[in-house]
Amino acid sequence: MTTTTHSHKAWTDEGGHVTGIQGACVCVTGAGGSIGSELCRQILGLQPRRLVLLERSEPSLYAIHQELSGLLPSGVELQPVLGSAADEALVQRCFAEQGVEVVFHAAAYKHVPLVEAHPLAGLANNVLSTRAVCTAARRCGLRKVVLISTDKAVRPTNVMGASKRVAELVVQAQAQELAAAALEQGRRPATRLAMVRFGNVLGSSGSVVPLFRKQLAAGGPITLTHPEIIRYFMTIPEASQLVLQAATLAEGGDVFLLDMGEPVRIKALAQQMVRLSGLSLRDQSNPGGEIEIVCTGLRPGEKLYEELLIDAESEATAHPLIYRARERSVPPEELWPQIDALEAAIERQ
């Protein structure tokens, strides 16, 4: 399998800042995660005034803070904050005290089987953190909030996907309220909320590539859930670069989709990894081979293939690899009572 990386000129927003980040105070939630940490690395290269790392895992926060401290450009401040993005009081205090202007909300539980087994934790972390971040951003007058979403939010078949879909609906409803308030005052929304939806990233925690590599090193077998399973893939640096560039295009309530290229059949990926390792595949035609591929069955809530569009309608943007979807959302007056009920149910366990 080959992955194509694309390089594009730095994009500037209406203030002339590189992706609205140069000279700004930027916060990344889930800063120690696969996407969050790469966003932090790329943001540092765009010369923000301050980068705030919000992370609930102490080891992850320590690791990314240590790494970035060694990469720190002159004049850029680094501020680690240990805590949950679902803690609205903490998030609001962080935004106010640090003078945050732009936030990339990457904090989430993302492993389908784990969230399937622990739905309350998944819903609390993925949904309530998004509401907390958006609410705090509005109160503190941030310029932009960008939610990192997933193709699993499209027609979800598992709790993780459903929780991310609800998180998207939260962003859209908050954006509707901001737009309505701005319209009354004859201006554009002061805070712009958007989301970026994309598929799997190569090499992230839980990704099949590190798993297959580990299984190869152990002499096999390589385990697949289903022989026909298909996924879209992108490298972590490329996905992060496109997220930063999508932020520049945000007008409010946007659903951005990343061009993920051609889908990859996971079995073909496994076969290619065996060949590239200089090993032979053990199957019916070659019973003496070294590495066997074993299918274990789809996990609870797992799809054979993922999609990026709900309403099958998207349009091009100024960036060739970023599309804007036109999708339905739930009106705020309908959504908020349901989110309140969800929160109460989570509290009651």
Description:
The chain is 40% helix and 19% strand. By secondary structure, it is of the alpha/beta class. The protein has a domain at 108-199 and 235-260 and 307-347: NAD(P)-binding Rossmann-like Domain (Rossmann fold). The strands form four sheets. The protein has a nine-stranded mixed beta sheet with strand order 3-2-1-4-5-6-11-16-15, sandwiched between helices. β5, α6 (159-184) and β6 (192-198) form a beta-alpha-beta unit. α5 runs parallel beside α6. The protein is globular. The N and C termini lie far apart (44 Å). The model is unreliable at 1-18 (pLDDT under 50).
Task: Describe the secondary structure blueprint for this structure.
Blueprint: E1 25-29, H1 34-45, E2 50-55, H2 58-69, E3 77-82, H3 88-98, E4 102-105, H4 112-117, H5 119-140, E5 144-150, H6 159-184, E6 192-198, E7 200-202, H7 208-217, E8 222-224, E9 230-231, E10 233-235, H8 236-249, E11 254-258, E12 264-265, H9 266-276, E13 281-282, E14 291-295, E15 314-316, E16 322-325, H10 332-347
Parallel strand pairs: 1-2, 1-4, 2-3, 4-5, 5-6, 6-11, 7-10, 8-14, 13-14
Antiparallel strand pairs: 9-12, 11-16, 15-16
Task: Give keywords.
349 residues, nine-stranded mixed sheet, globular, alpha/beta, 16 strands, Rossmann fold, three-stranded parallel sheet, disordered N terminus
